[in-house]
Amino acid sequence: MHVALARARGAEVREQVAVQGIRPTGDRIDVVADAGTVFTRRLVLAAGAWTNDHLAALGRSWLLTVTQEQVTYFATPHLRRFLPAVFPAWSWFSDQVLYGFPVFGEVAVKAAQDLGGLAVSASTRTFEPDRGKVDRSCTRRPASTPSRRTATSCSGRSPACPSGVSRIW
User: Fold this and answer.
1) Environment class of residue 6 by beta-carbon count within 10 Å: exposed (0-12), middle (13-18) or buried (19+)?
2) pTM for this one?
3) What is the domain partition of the chain in residue ranges?
4) How many helices (DSSP H) and strands (DSSP E) are in the chain?
């Protein structure tokens, strides 16, 4: 949604571009990337685990702990039951923070644990699921769900897992 809003207001979004450096130069910012240098007057830095690497080039840093999080997308033949008008975004606050979203953007319902992943850095993060955190009762995934987006992490105490999984299926 943030990307769509930015584009609607004239932003040029370049995804999956490795940034080598950011240099303020007078009234502009030079962003040096693998694909060449971009000159801009405004820059929104959405670099995830790489944020402090780029802020350091500007003489700044944040107290930032990056964790590798996992989410699950549950496909369902009952999409209408999980549309935003019927099925709200939800949060479950306990000793863990669990949350989920209705069908929006993906043709599946999203569920995840917030702040449950291991601390990582830009060089140590991966896109592989942490198999030690996967609850085996929640790993069912239909072939139609894209595997590149399906690292799973679930808790039996979540209102959506595993009891919610059986309702979804």
Assistant:
1) middle
2) 0.51
3) 2-57, 67-168
4) 3, 9
